[in-house]
Amino acid sequence: MQDSEVEEALVDLPPSSKFIYNVLSREGSMTLKQLTEETLLCSRTARYGLTKLEDADLVEAAPALHDGRQTCYSIEQRSIGKGQTGYPASVLVRPKDLHRELSDFETDDPELRLVEVSSEYDEGHIPGAVELDPKTDFTDAGTRTIPDADRLETLLGERGITPDTTVVLYSDGYNEFAAFVYWALKYYRHPDVRLLNGGKYYWTENGFPTTESTPDVTPVEYQSQPPNDHVRAYRRDVQDALSEDVSIVDVRSPEEYCGDADVPARASGHIPRTVNIEWTSVVRECGRFEHRRALERPFVEADIEETDDVIVYCNIGERSALVWFALSELLGYSDVTNYDGSWTEWGNLVGVPVETCESDLE
Fold it and tell me: I need a labelling partner for 140 at 20 to 30 A (CA). Which of 55, 64, 257, 342 fits?
């Protein structure tokens, strides 16, 4: 829906609806409780305003990811810049679009492949989806890792994926495991790979179909390309960044960042000169990515610009892969790398600098 269409639809709506729409445009998705706290409207008035917005197809409602008893409201699609609406379909697939084209993915067609990145595939998955298990296919010695080229070729070829296949990925939670596989495929220069917005949670909570049947897939040959190190940061890159004009973003929780949580490393804390922007800030409670304005906000507030060199990290690289996707693929930041060694590597090194929130204050 273009700006002019939104304005026309809002004209005849009550003031509460217009007020709520402006708040959702500014803040991103919110529950009814959050809206009443932000707008100071009573619950009845806020609920009435939301109902009118839903009737006008200006907002969408979905169960909140961490509490299915609550409903998360957000603007389904709004103008983002002149002549541009939404995020590009070339990287992010809307659930409604996938559902409409699901029969194409259910056929054994090497041009299209739907992939669930999950260890719970057998409990139910989207019809036509094949499985990649992050615990067995993307882990080595207990650490999330990119498979080497030979292993990747086997994994993809067995699942009927060729270098020319359009691959649509999704996973549980906030889609972080799917984002890690997306980033890994980009590392090996797979041309056409996309994420399902909202992942498995949004799909199932909104009544889209699932099945326990495994699709018949014809194995093919997959030939990988030379790695693209422009999307991956290594330990030496992080060490160099400490003395260079590079933004380092720790996407873990504030407790992990400050050194107040148990982590898979001998040391707790964070890499010096880092800013803490928690990974969940890029997604809404319903599991889908935030709208552009809300997505940009924490990075703008941290003075991180589109042209900056940015390194993101977490514990084992999958949460930071989701933030890498948001910055690189959705917002168009030009130079973002994911340090997949992350804290599991850095926190176990000897002689590297480590800080905690207490030491930051000293």
Answer: 257
Torsions phi, psi for 69 (to 5 deg): -75, -20
**Side-chain half-sphere CA neighbours of 223 within 13 A:** 0
pLDDT for the residue 67:
60
CATH for 229-361, options being 3.40.250.10, 1.25.40.10, 3.30.470.20, 1.10.645.10: 3.40.250.10
- Beta-carbon contacts of 302 under 8 Å, excluding residues fewer than 6 positions away, are 247, 249, 275, 277
pTM of the model: 0.81
Domain 92-205, what fold? Oxidized Rhodanese; domain 1 (3.40.250)
3-74 CATH pick, 3.40.50.150, 1.25.10.10, 3.40.309.10, 1.10.10.10: 1.10.10.10
DSSP 33-63: HHHHHHH---HHHHHHHHHHHHHTT--EEEE
Active site residues: 314
- Token readout for 255 is 């407790």
Specify the pairing of strand 71-74 against strand 30-31. antiparallel
pLDDT, tens digit, 9 for 90 and up, residues 62-75: 776 656 667 888 77
